Amino acid sequence: MPRGRIATRLTELSPSATLAIDQRAKAMVASGIDVVSFAAGEPDFPTPDFIVEAATAAARDPRNHRYTPAAGLGELRELIVEVTKRDSGRVVSPSNVVVTNGGKHAIYEAMAAIVEPGDEVLIPAPYWVSYPEIVRLFGGVPVAVPTTLANGFKVTPEQVEAAITDRTVAFIHVSPSNPTGAVYSRDESRALAEVLERAGIWVLTDEIYQHLTYTGQRATSLAEVGTEALEARLIQVNGVAKTFAMTGWRVGWIVAPAPVASAVANLQSQLSSNVANVSQRAAIAALEAPLEATAPMRDAFARRRTTIVSALAGIEGLDVLWPDGAFYVFPSLARVLEVQMPSSSALELATRLLEEAHVAVVPGEAFDGPGAWRLSYALGDDALEEGVRRIAEFIGRL
Ligand SMILES: Cc1ncc(COP(=O)(O)O)c(C=O)c1O
Question: Where is the Aminotransferase class I/classII large domain (predicted)?
Fold first, then answer.
């Protein structure tokens, strides 16, 4: 056995492509270059004042200076029970809830609870970069179920049914989606739930962008449209990061059947113990507030969505689907690549765009969606307009 080696489970782990591009853009900015970055996956707003005030008070309270239960503060778990009922109609108790260090940590711990080596996990593609890496960390096999712009970047129940094998243990669902912004309608969610119920596999539903929708239609949770059979296999993941502009506070959670929740709480007691109490108190303030408190942020995203999507749609060579939620748009460069640059890729064009036009986007390859770019519209209105102007000029020059 070679000494001093790094375990393959980590040498084979890909770094987060979105974070890497964002860091590169930030480094260029630090060296004085005027970069417009569409790469970030986080709201550009500060956390609302009332939440910051609650955290400041919490930091002064010695109750929060000690270890607390690994699964989370009782008050916060009670509140999560309430918002779960409000937002997805699911009735659970605090024993079904574990507070985690963000949604990513929640997904990691949920996968630790359900994936054995060789198990297959179905993931609609294009997908958020961390899902397959997390599945692989536990020896699982991520299986992509492809979607295209033509079908609205949504999998059909028939596709899911056909992808299920004897080794499939779970399906990952995210609506609104990162990177495409696709939102499944109630009927589409119901049809998907039926197939998943029949299959009897675990379903991890990532609801982190649940409150960011723009077409007047709410995002339907699979919990609302599934039967008890589905609920017995349903792991909901959520958090305060995107809705409340709290990415840096690191508070997420899972709501899951009791055996999963207690396995995850057990893992967390060995892995990271409780989430920082001050952050949990901030999350309590966020969840106690009416959702209207976040409306100004949602309105700003809605405005920017209109600006960016109309501008991109007007660029010759790009094909764009109006995203119904989250804060991403995923334009296809297929026509540009086919006609003008057959030997190139979205990745190469993204690199050139950054170097030549000083605009950062994430190439679709990172999400198993080649031939496209992901642009986040969580940036100021002026920067956004300048960025799309540069993109139009860059594509025009190709
Ligand atoms: C689809 C999706 N799920 C989960 C997360 C994780 O959110 P956090 O760990 O910041 O709570 C993100 C963050 O980018 C995401 O895009």
Answer: 34-391
